[in-house]
Amino acid sequence: MTKILVTGVTGVVGKGTVEHLLKKGVPANQIIGLSRKKEAIEDLVAKGIEVRIGDYFDYDSLVQAFEGVDKVLLVSSVAFTDRFTQHYNAITAARQAGVKHIVYMSIMRKEGSGRIMPEITESDLFTEQVLKSSGLDYTILYNPPFMDLLSFYYGSNPYETGIKVPANNGKMAPATRNEVSEAYAEILSTQGHENKTYSLGGSDSISFSDIAKILSELKRQPVEFTTITPEDYIDSIVAQGPPKHVAEFITSWVVAIEEGEFEQQSGDLEQLLGRKSQTFKEYISSTLA
């Protein structure tokens, strides 16, 4: 009986992966969740999921949590924390506990671009190298921007404020967190994914200017689109309260999108889902209904 442990189980991706594992027929007693806190796990426990408490910074807690586990989904830790130490601890503890296979959530990188995304790229590269040299089976999943979080970049009320970003026609291939979670569950619950990488770009290729046009069409209400400088975009974010280093981090994503860092459409996501992923128009229509 294969035991699957999903980290970050109180987050959207972790919890979504568990839910999709259950939908795929994986028995609840073969699924374990890992959480840093005891709060917000009641619904999982009610479904028969064992939730273990562990922290990426607490090595011993990870060794205990990984005991008896065959596969681990390593949901990457958030920016502005020590991702190097956390991911190293998780991989090393998994090896010590006898885990056989780690699936790692990385961020898509355009081949040959050499772009270093602040707070992300260097720790991803480090984690992937540690994983490949660990002796464990691994699967690395390269994630695109999440479609259900794109409004974080263009604003929560574009019909009133318009869309003002340091971008124009640069394309990306986003996917929703629900679709990505379903792909993770497919990999965790089936064989043949050992020592492979997948690029999870979605079926829809879209730019920020496309988003403005789609939003306008859906409500028959104009959404003004304006390309601004990165400096002006940073200033607009800081004016809303976040510190400058966070504004610069957000801006680096928009600039990377505009320059094609996340435009790869390998077909891997479609293959894992068994269908095309949602278009932005389909997704946003469901939220406006």
Automatic annotation (TrEMBL):
Residues 3-284 form the NmrA-like domain. It holds the Pfam family NmrA. It comes from the Bacteria. This is Oxidoreductase. It comes from Flavobacterium subsaxonicum WB 4.1-42 = DSM 21790.
